[in-house]
Amino acid sequence: MFYSQAKVIAGGLVHIPIVISVFYLIMTFFNKRAIKFEEANKSKKTEAKVVESKTDPKQAASKPTKKKHADVPVNIYRPKTPFEGTVTGNYSLLKEGAIGRVNHITFDLKESDPFLNYVEGQSIGIMPVGEDANGKPHKLRLYSIASTRHGDDFEGNTVSLCVRQLQYEKDGETINGVCSTYLCDIKPGDKVKITGPVGKEMLLPDEEDANIVMLATGTGIAPMRAYLRRMFEATEKEKNKWNFKGKAWLFMGAPKSANLLYEEDLQRYLENYPENFKYTKAISREQQNTKGGRMYIQDRVLESANEIFNMIEDEKTHIYLCGLKGMEPGIDEAMTKAAEEKGLNWSELRPQLKKAGRWHVETY
Ligand code: FAD
Ligand code: A2P
Q1: Domain ranges of the chain
Q2: Which CATH number fits domain 83-198: 3.90.550.10, 3.10.20.600, 2.40.30.10, 3.20.20.70?
Q3: Residue 25: what pLDDT?
Q4: Is 322 tagged catalytic?
Q5: What is the pLDDT of residue 220?
Q6: Cis omega before residue 73 (within 30°)?
Q7: Predicted model pTM
Q8: Which residue has its alpha carbon closest to ligand 2 atom 15?
Q9: Of 5, 7, 90, 251, which has the most beta carbons under 10 Å away?
Q10: Are 221 and 252 spatial neighbours (Cβ–Cβ below 8 Å)?
Q11: Which residues in the chain show pLDDT less than 70?
Q12: Which ligand 2 atom is nearest residue 220's CA?
């Protein structure tokens, strides 16, 4: 009896290592699967990281234009709730003997919350103090931004404008424009009501090998100054990491040499980037066109018709017009003649350029 009981117990004990071995095998099998699963997951995460880092600004440039522009800030501040910016600088851009008054004015945006950010080619609104003839607060006036998004001091907290004081004669009296006079007279420390930013017409393309032809009269140079700083100003380039490799050609119209704006900077860019920057001036009251009249930028465009149209044939070329509304018919006329010389039809070509987002106009 005792013997048979001992036999059963011994038999049971013999099974213990078998049970343990089976259990061990099962555990090992599930552990291996778990490790494999983790590894697979890890590699998926790494892939995701690679994909993330692939969507850098260069890649974004190949995305459709509409989507790209959706990121551009607009109307962060509106007339009912403007931001009060502090003036940090206001100085004349003109040399002795110049006509009129044109100032470079900078505002501090640091205190804005939400932050009033902007990109090159946009405008801001300025609300002058005081009331109009009907006793209503003055309406805002738009001004093209003359600084890059990093500001003139590269800190990213300011916005600068290039403002001409409007002055005209009426019934023997000199009339001063409301907002332009207000802006030319403001002093550092003054608070100014700012709205915006607005505008998507004058944005620069993202492509570093784009060609940029700029046609500016007077303060129409404001957005162009921002573009050129983005392209050629050393500290700005360090900040923006945009390595411009194309050709930039500025046609600038001014009444006198003393009225040329940002001239020293432009000469510096010419020296530093002779392969990338070209600068053609039309100084209306010192130079004459072939007909003996005032030299305007459209006359300069005609002189360089061939070269300009060669550039336009390249789909990486964008053309920007800014300044006096009055220059538009003249530019159109010059482009028509220039196109004819190349056997092209400007009235057909211009809408095509516009549709392709390569013809940018902001005149006032
Ligand atoms: P106002 O007091 O408003 O006077 C203008 C009015 O005076 C005109 O509407 C007209 O009725 C009258 N007037 C003007 N000239 C004459 C004349 N010769 N004879 C009789 N009546 C006349 N300006 C800049 O200086 N720099 C810029 O960068 C700039 N960017 C702009 C960007 C955009 C998108 C726009 C739309 C305009 C821009 N302007 C710019 C123009 C600016 O907005 C103002 O229109 C300009 O400063 C004049 O405003 P003001 O308040 O001084 O003149
Ligand atoms: P002008 O005034 O001699 O006729 P600013 O804004 O500093 O006055 O500069 C504007 C420049 O544009 C001036 O040289 C001016 O010449 C010139 N300009 C005036 N009207 C036109 C026009 N219709 N087309 C092109 N340029 C023009």
Answers
A1: 5-54, 83-198, 204-363
A2: 2.40.30.10
A3: 54
A4: yes
A5: 98
A6: no
A7: 0.85
A8: 255
A9: 251
A10: yes
A11: 1-68
A12: 6
CA of 324 to the centre of ligand 2 (A): 7
Query: How would you write the chain as a 3-class SS string?
Result: CHHHHHHHHHHHHHHHHHHHHHHHHHHHHHHHHHHHHHHHHHHHHHHHHHHHHHCCHHHHCCCCHHHHHCCCCCCCECCCCCEEEEEEEEEECCCCCCCCCEEEEEEECCCCCCCCCCCCCCEEEEECCCECCCCCECCCEEEEECCCCCCCCCCCCEEEEEEECCEEEECCEEEECHHHHHHHHCCCCCEEEEEEEECCCCCCCCCCCCEEEEEEEHHHHHHHHHHHHHHHCHHHHHHHCCCCCCCEEEEEEECCHHHCCCHHHHHHHHHHCCCCEEEEEEECCCCECCCCCECCHHHHHHHCHHHHHHHHCCCCEEEEEEECCCHHHHHHHHHHHHHHHCCCCHHHHHHHHHHCCCEEEEEC
Residue of 118, 143, 182, 227 with catalytic role? 143
Residue nearest to atom 50 of ligand 1 (CA): 177
Return the pLDDT at 330: 94
Q: Is 304 among the residues known to form the active site? A: no
The pLDDT tens digits of the residues spanning 275-303 come to: 999 999 999 999 999 999 999 999 999 99
Q: What is the rounded CA–CA span in Å between residue 14 and residue 215?
A: 97
Measured distance CA(36)–CA(162) in Å, rounded? 64
What is the per-residue pLDDT for 244?
98
The yes-or-no answer on residue 364 being catalytic is yes
pLDDT tens sequence across 150-183: 999 999 999 999 999 999 999 999 999 999 999 9
The predicted structure's pLDDT at residue 306: 87
**Candidate CATH numbers 3.40.50.740, 3.40.50.80, 3.40.50.1100, 3.10.20.30; the one for domain 204-363:** 3.40.50.80
Ligand 1 pocket residues where CB is under 6 Å? 123, 141-144, 162-164, 166, 168, 170, 177-181, 219, 222, 362, 364
Q: Which pLDDT value is given to residue 9? A: 55
What tokens were used for 81?
Answer: 């709730």
